[in-house]
Write a structure and sequence with these properties.
Number of strands: 8
Distance between the termini: 24 Å
Strand order of the largest sheet: 2-6-1-7-8
Largest sheet: 5 strands, parallel
Helix content: 40-55%
Bound molecules: cytidine-5'-monophosphate
């Protein structure tokens, strides 16, 4: 008899609160946690390190397959290392998110990253967040959420987050970047951002983090 491994997928656009919610839900359930966006972001860092741009498909694929990523996640700490270097902060830069989104539109790169993501599915369970967790990576997932919020609210949240480390951050520019990235993610040919047919939609525009977490936990119960 094969053991079923429960998976909760949380997909949605950037800034909807997926990261905070998914991490806290994973900690509460004591499940594993996959932030797939961090994989694309780390690949963007590796691309910059190796002077690659989105036109270098073959070398990007090689890097996607060979990069060594280590995630460490507990209630108070979350770190990401790439080939031995701590990239926890670097991957959060807006420029890195934009490069990640360009690289993520390349079908061969997405294909190369499939196994890396699927390896996270282990007992006692997994919370996986991104754009295509419920549609492509874990279509068999037992529970699926599509988490959104208005572009204005998402830009505001990103602004407050980035403002702590960057005084030059502009709300208008962030909103524009968010909308450009949404458009690219929703309209690409492979694994576009969209809700799985069996996903529960949660709009977090007017909800607190705790309210979204409790809606997710209710699904699991
Ligand atoms: O979630 P985050 O904003 O960190 O993701 C950065 C970029 O990586 C996204 O804009 C998206 O293009 C890409 N991504 C993706 N598929 C995922 C997760 C992220 O294409 N599952």
């Amino acid at each position: 008899m094969t053991t079923q491994i429960p998976v909760l997928t949380i997909d949605g656009p950037g800034g909807a609160g997926k990261g905070t919610v998914s991490r806290l839900v994973a900690v509460k359930l004591n499940w594993h946690y996959l932030e797939s966006g961090a994989i694309y972001r780390a690949l963007a860092v590796a691309a910059k390190r190796d002077s690659l741009d989105p036109g270098h498909t073959d070398r990007l694929v090689q890097t996607a397959l060979s990069m060594n990523l280590v995630f460490q996640c507990d209630a108070s700490n979350y770190t990401v290392s790439l080939d031995g270097d701590d990239v926890t902060e670097t991957i959060r830069q807006e420029s890195c998110g934009n490069m990640a989104s360009r690289i993520a539109a390349i079908p061969e790169v997405r294909q190369a990253l499939l196994d890396k993501q699927r390896l996270f599915k282990q007992l006692p369970g997994l919370v996986a967040e991104g754009r295509d967790m419920g549609t492509v990576i874990f279509p068999e997932a037992s529970h699926k959420v599509f988490l959104t919020a208005s572009a204005e609210e998402r830009a505001k949240r990103r602004y407050l987050q980035l403002k702590q480390s960057d005084n030059n951050v502009s709300l208008d520019r962030l909103r524009e970047e968010i909308e450009t990235r949404d458009n690219r993610d929703m309209n690409r040919a492979v694994a576009p951002l969209k809700p799985a047919v069996d996903a529960v939609l949660i709009d977090s525009t007017a909800l607190t983090v705790d309210e979204v977490i409790s809606q997710c936990l209710d699904l699991i119960k």
